[in-house]
Amino acid sequence: MDQASPVPVPYSARLNDFRISLPMEIRTLLGQMAEQNVLISLTAPRGITYTTTIWEVDRLKGTLCLGVEPSGRHLDRILAAEELLAVGYLDKVKIQFDVHDLMQVRDTDGQSVLTCRLPRELYRFQRRSHFRVRPLPTPAPVVRLRPYPESPAVELRIIDVSVSGVALLMSGRVPLSTGMQVAGADVELDADTRFVANLEVMNVSPLRQDVSSSRVGCEMSGLSAPALRALQRFINQTQKRRRAMAWADL
Fold it and tell me: What is the DSSP code string of the chain?
């Protein structure tokens, strides 16, 4: 007697294990993403994307407030899209949800922002290939670079770092924008971890706490083998130190 073939499980059913629908848990996750200035990619059909961050989770109004990137592209097409998906990474976990009723407004301070409805459900799945850590504040980790070959060098504080990228804190006076490439940047994470890397600016997003400053996400390349080993060692040690600090606070 032939054995019956297994019945395929619908894709929507397979997603049930990753679905979160409790309002409190949804607000908690989105609030953590806001506190950590997690980058959110809004994606419309045909691959149109826009990068932003969550500024506020308004439980009473049932809305999310998102930042408007000064040099952002495709915002008009994103606002006009009938379908819109938001994706961001909280620590090592991918967070994904549908965006509804997205519009651009001005807040009480006159700042241009995006608002949308709080999602009724979101999905939490798929780990990052590269773990990202926030360095300890002392000594302050920095990157020294020249935005243009003829410009003076500037020093930017590092917000977080992985083996493939780094996020920098930029004031309004530093001319970095999406798509720029900077060769020979000096990266100093601590006294024992210093190396040279090429940077490509992938996105620039205003900070929720300080609209005069921005988070600059850069992809790193051109690292030597010793530099990669030192960077991986720094990430591992930072993870251990932060874990020890968290246990000490319990």
Answer: -PPPPPPPPPHHHHGGGGEE--HHHHHHHHHHHHHTT-EEEEEEGGGEEEEEEEEEEETTTTEEEEE--TT-SSHHHHHH-SS-EEEEEETTEEEEEE--S-EEEE-TTS-EEEEEEPPS-EEEEEE-SS--BPPPSSSPPEEEE-SSTTSPPEEEEEEEE-SSEEEEEEETTS---TT-EEEEEEEEEETTEEEEEEEEEEEEEE-SS-TTEEEEEEEEE---HHHHHHHHHHHHHHHHHHHHHHHHT-
As averages over each run of 10 residues, the pLDDT of the chain (250 residues) reads 43 64 89 89 87 92 88 82 91 88 84 93 70 77 92 92 89 84 94 93 80 86 89 86 65
The pTM for the full model equals: 0.55
